[in-house]
Specification:
It is a single chain. It contains 19 helices and 13 strands. It is an alpha/beta fold and 420 residues long. It has two domains: 137 residues, Rossmann fold, CATH 3.40.50.2300; 268 residues, P-loop containing nucleotide triphosphate hydrolases (Rossmann fold, 3-Layer(aba) Sandwich), CATH 3.40.50.300. The chain has an eight-stranded mixed beta sheet with strand order 8-9-7-10-6-11-12-13, with helices on both faces. It is elongated.
Length: 420
C-alpha cells in the first residue's frame, strides 16, 4: 500500500516512469488531497496525462458516470465506512467501461478493506497523507508494471555557451558509463547540424537521429536498433547528420518518441544537447532524469549557468537539481573567476572541475579518441568518473576501471582475452 510505495519512491525518484497519454478523473473529499493532485499535475512525469479534479468522493463518482463514459483512471478519496464504500463501488462497477482502473485513497490503514477492494477489481488502495511522487508512482505502475528495475535513466548534458566542452564531456561520460559500469549505454547527439559525436568516436555513422525523428509514427524498437551505431561492447551512438545542406526543424514530440523507446530498452541514455534554449530543448531537459550543466569560469558563463540552474530548479521541483561542471580552468593569461567564488555565486559546489590542457583535448578530438585513451592519469580524465558517480549513483568496479585505462591497447587486449 502507500507506505511501501513511498519507501521505494524516496530511494530513487528517477525510477518513476512517465505516464502515457491517459485521462484521469479524481474525486476528492479533503483540501490536502486536492492540493496534492494539483501539484502532481505540474510534475514532468504527468505531462502527457489529462487530469480533471472534482469534489464529492465516491458518491460524486457514481453520479458522474451514470450516463457518461469513464476515463482510463478513476481516483476516489473516501472517509466512508467500509460497508458504505463497498456498496458505492459495486454500483460504480456497473457503469465502468472495460479497461478503466480505479484507485482508492483512504484515511484508515485497514488490511481487510484493502483485500476486499482488490477482490472487487480496485487497482490500489493508498493511505493519506501521500507523498507526491508516491501518488504519481501508484498511477505509473498501472501502465508500467515493475518499471523501476527496467526504466532507463536519461542524462542530458548542455553547455552555458558554445565551445565550453559539453559535447566532449557528454561523450566521455557515456563511454565511461559503458566501460566502467559494464552497462548498456546510448549517446544521442541532438546537435543535428554541427554534432561531433561521430568524430569523437572516429566513426562515420548514418544520421540516426534524423531518420528516427523524421517519422515518429513509424519508429519502433526494431527500427531504432538498426539506426544505432555500435561504438564498443556496451556503447552505441545515435548520431547527428552534422551537415548544413538542409535545416532541421524537429519539435519535442519527435524527440520524445525516441526518448520513450530508449527508456524501455537501454539502462543509460546520454543526450548531447546543443547550446540553444528553445521549446524543444527545454522540454528535453525537463524530461531528463539527470542534467549536467557545463560551464567555464568567466562572467558570461556564470550568468548563463545561474539563469539555467534557477529556471530548471523551479520547473523540476520533484527532481534533483542539475549538476554543475566547470571546464577549461586555468587557460594561460585568461582572467578567470576563481572556482570557489564561482561556486559561492551559484550557491552550489561543482561535481567536477576540469583543468584546461590544449594538448590532451586537442589530441583526443583530432584522433577520434576518448580522454582516457590519450592520457589516463590526467586530472581532467580522472574527473569523468566523478561526473559518472554523481549522475548514476554508482562507482566503477576497480578491475574494469583498470582495464579502461589501458587506452589504445584495450581493443587488442580485449580480443586476446576473448580468444583465450
Amino acid at each position: 500500500m502507500t507506505d511501501d510505495i513511498d519507501e521505494r519512491t524516496d530511494r530513487d525518484a528517477s525510477l518513476v516512469a512517465p505516464l502515457p497519454r491517459i485521462s484521469i478523473q479524481v474525486f476528492t473529499e479533503t483540501q490536502d488531497v486536492a492540493h496534492l493532485v494539483q501539484n502532481a499535475c505540474q510534475d514532468r512525469r504527468m505531462a502527457k496525462a489529462h487530469v480533471k479534479i472534482q469534489t464529492g468522493g465516491a458518491g460524486a463518482a457514481v453520479e458522474a458516470y451514470r450516463e457518461a463514459p469513464t476515463p482510463n483512471v478513476i481516483i476516489i478519496e473516501t472517509r466512508l465506512n467500509s460497508v458504505t464504500l463497498l456498496g458505492l463501488l459495486d454500483e460504480l462497477a456497473g457503469y465502468c467501461d472495460a479497461g478503466t482502473r480505479v484507485i482508492i485513497i483512504g484515511h484508515v490503514n485497514d488490511v481487510l478493506l484493502y483485500r476486499e477492494l482488490l477482490r472487487r477489481g480496485v487497482s490500489d488502495y493508498l493511505i493519506a497523507p501521500l507523498s507526491l511522487l508516491g501518488f504519481i508512482r501508484s498511477i505509473s505502475d498501472l501502465f508500467n508494471p515493475e518499471s523501476g528495475a527496467k526504466l532507463g535513466r536519461i542524462i542530458s548534458v548542455i553547455g552555458t555557451k558554445g565551445g565550453v566542452g559539453s559535447s566532449t564531456i557528454a561523450h566521455n561520460l557515456g563511454y565511461t558509463i559503458a566501460t566502467d559500469l559494464d552497462a548498456e549505454t546510448v549517446i544521442v547527439d541532438l546537435d543535428l547540424a554541427f554534432g561531433t559525436a561521430g568524430l569523437d568516436f572516429n566513426q562515420d555513422p548514418a544520421s540516426g537521429v534524423v531518420e528516427a525523428a523524421a517519422d515518429p509514427e513509424r519508429l519502433d524498437g526494431n527500427l531504432l536498433d538498426r539506426l544505432l551505431s555500435p561504438c564498443g561492447e556496451r556503447l552505441s551512438l545515435l548520431a547527428a547528420p552534422a551537415t548544413t545542406d538542409r535545416t532541421f526543424d524537429f519539435g519535442f514530440q519527435q524527440y520524445e518518441q525516441i526518448m520513450d523507446l530508449l527508456r524501455q530498452t537501454v539502462p543509460n541514455i546520454v543526450i548531447d544537447l546543443p547550446h540553444v534554449w528553445t521549446d524543444w530543448s527545454r522540454k528535453v531537459l525537463l524530461a531528463s532524469d539527470e542534467i549536467v550543466i557545463v560551464t567555464e569560469p568567466d562572467l558570461a558563463n556564470l550568468r548563463n549557468a545561474k539563469n539555467m540552474m534557477d529556471s530548471l530548479s523551479v520547473l523540476r521541483k520533484n527532481d534533483s537539481k542539475p549538476h554543475l561542471v566547470i571546464n577549461k580552468v586555468g587557460i594561460a593569461k585568461r582572467p578567470e573567476i576563481a572556482v570557489g567564488e564561482f561556486a559561492k555565486a551559484m550557491d552550489m559546489q561543482p561535481i567536477a572541475v576540469l583543468p584546461y590542457d590544449a594538448q590532451l583535448f586537442g589530441a583526443a578530438s583530432n584522433n577520434g579518441q576518448m580522454l582516457i585513451d590519450v592520457q589516463a592519469k590526467h586530472k581532467a580524465t580522472e574527473a569523468i568518473p566523478d561526473i559518472m558517480r554523481a549522475v548514476t549513483g554508482r562507482v566503477a568496479d576497480p578491475s574494469r576501471a583498470k582495464r579502461a585505462g589501458l587506452g589504445v591497447l584495450q581493443p587488442l587486449l580485449e580480443k586476446l582475452r576473448k580468444r583465450a
